[in-house]
Task: inverse folding
C-alpha cells in the first residue's frame, strides 16, 4: 500500500480540481434564476459529510442522495434517474 | 496483462473498439442483453436482438481474436409491462441452445416497481429451470440503494438458488457490503460520470477484499469507455497492487465465476488475420 504522502502526490491535484469544480458549480447555480430543486437541496444536505472525521463518507453521501422510501409503485411513470430523489414526477425534457 | 471484459454492450461499439480491446490484452467479451437506448416496439425486435447477440456478434468479435459470450433476458427498463415482457421471455429458451449463451441477464430493476420485480422473479425462475448463472443489473443513481435491497429480499425467497452463481452488478460503496455479505458476487462498473471511478473501485477492493468481485466497463451506446478495465489495472499498479493481485481481479475472478456456465470455454482464440 502506498503511504499517505505518495497517495497525495498521486491524487491531490485531481481531488483539488474536483473540489473547485464543485464550488464553481454551486456559484454558477446561484447566479442563475429559477425554482428550487430537490437535487440541489440533496447536494447541500450531504456536503457536511465531507468534513466528518470517520471513514465511509462516500457511502454516506450515496445514502444521502438515495431514495429511502419503502413504498413501491405498480408501474414506472418515467424511465430515467436524476441523481437525487424527486418529490414530484419530473417532466422529462 | 490479460483480462476479461465481463460486461460490454458490444453491439453498440465500433470495430475500432474491438481492435483496442484486443491490443490491450482482452481475451473475451461478455455481453448482457440490455436496453438499446429506445424501447423496442415488438417482441420481434427482441427476436432480432437475440439473433444478433448469439450469432452475429460472436462472429464479429472473432475477427479480432476475441471470444464473445452473451446473457439473455428482457432488460428492466422494458420489463415494466408484464404482458410484453412475458412475450419476449417466451423467445429465450430457443436461444439458450446457442453455444455462446452464459446465462440469464442483465435482469433487475430500473424504477423499483412491482411490475419490474415480478418479471425479475420470473427471470430468476427461468435461470433455475435451466440451471444457469444470473447477472443482475442494479438501478441507477438514487434508485440503486432501494432496488438492491428489494432484489436481495426477493432472491432470499428462492431457497434453491446457488448464490455463488449470481453476480449483482454496478455496486457502489453503499451497496457492496450487503451483496457480498449475503454470498453473491459483486460487479463494479467503471463509468466516466456515474457508477464507479477506477479509484473508487480500487478503494472497494482494498476494503472488501479480492474475492467474488469483478470489474467491467459496461461500455454501450452512451458515455462509456471499453478500455476502462485495463485503465483501472494501471491505476491499481500506481497504488502498488501487485500484478498477481490485478490479474486476479480482472482475469481469474471473471473466469472463476463464468466457469459456472456450461458454455464458457477457456480456449480463447489467438489473433489470426486469416480468420
Result:
Amino acid at each position: 500500500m502506498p503511504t499517505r504522502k505518495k497517495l497525495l502526490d498521486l491524487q491531490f491535484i485531481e481531488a483539488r480540481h474536483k473540489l473547485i469544480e464543485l464550488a464553481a458549480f454551486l456559484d454558477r447555480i446561484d447566479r442563475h434564476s429559477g425554482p428550487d430543486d430537490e437535487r440541489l437541496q440533496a447536494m447541500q444536505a450531504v456536503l457536511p459529510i465531507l468534513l466528518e472525521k470517520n471513514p465511509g463518507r462516500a457511502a454516506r453521501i450515496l445514502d444521502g442522495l438515495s431514495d429511502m422510501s419503502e413504498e413501491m409503485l405498480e408501474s414506472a411513470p418515467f424511465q430515467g434517474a436524476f441523481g437525487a430523489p424527486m418529490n414530484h414526477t419530473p417532466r422529462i425534457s | 496483462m490479460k483480462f476479461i471484459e465481463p460486461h460490454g454492450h458490444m453491439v453498440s461499439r465500433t470495430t475500432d473498439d474491438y481492435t483496442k480491446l484486443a491490443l490491450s490484452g482482452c481475451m473475451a467479451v461478455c455481453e448482457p442483453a440490455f436496453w438499446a437506448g429506445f424501447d423496442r416496439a415488438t417482441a420481434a425486435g427482441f427476436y432480432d436482438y437475440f439473433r444478433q447477440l448469439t450469432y452475429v456478434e460472436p462472429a464479429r468479435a472473432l475477427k479480432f481474436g476475441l471470444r464473445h459470450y452473451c446473457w439473455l433476458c428482457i432488460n428492466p427498463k422494458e420489463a415494466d409491462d408484464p404482458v410484453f415482457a412475458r412475450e419476449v421471455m417466451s423467445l429465450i429458451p430457443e436461444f439458450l441452445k446457442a453455444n455462446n449463451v452464459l446465462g440469464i441477464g442483465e435482469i433487475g430493476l430500473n424504477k423499483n416497481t412491482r411490475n419490474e420485480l415480478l418479471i425479475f422473479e420470473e427471470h430468476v425462475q427461468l435461470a433455475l429451470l435451466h440451471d444457469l448463472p444470473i447477472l443482475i443489473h442494479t438501478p441507477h443513481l438514487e434508485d440503486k440503494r432501494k432496488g438492491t435491497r428489494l432484489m436481495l429480499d426477493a432472491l432470499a425467497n428462492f431457497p434453491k438458488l446457488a448464490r455463488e452463481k449470481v453476480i449483482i452488478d454496478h455496486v457502489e460503496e453503499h451497496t457492496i457490503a450487503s451483496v457480498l455479505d449475503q454470498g453473491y458476487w459483486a460487479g463494479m462498473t467503471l463509468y466516466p460520470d456515474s457508477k464507479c471511478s477506477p479509484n473508487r473501485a480500487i478503494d472497494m477492493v482494498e476494503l472488501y477484499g479480492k474475492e467474488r468481485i469483478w470489474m467491467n466497463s459496461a461500455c454501450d451506446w452512451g458515455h462509456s469507455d471499453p478500455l476502462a478495465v485495463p485503465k483501472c489495472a494501471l491505476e491499481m499498479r500506481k497504488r502498488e497492487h501487485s500484478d498477481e493481485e490485478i490479474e486476479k481481479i480482472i482475469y481469474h475472478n471473471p473466469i472463476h465465476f463464468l466457469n459456472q456456465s456450461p458454455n464458457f470455454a477457456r480456449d480463447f482464440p489467438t489473433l489470426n488475420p486469416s480468420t
In short: Residues 36-64 of chain A form one domain. The longest helix of chain A spans residues 4-31.
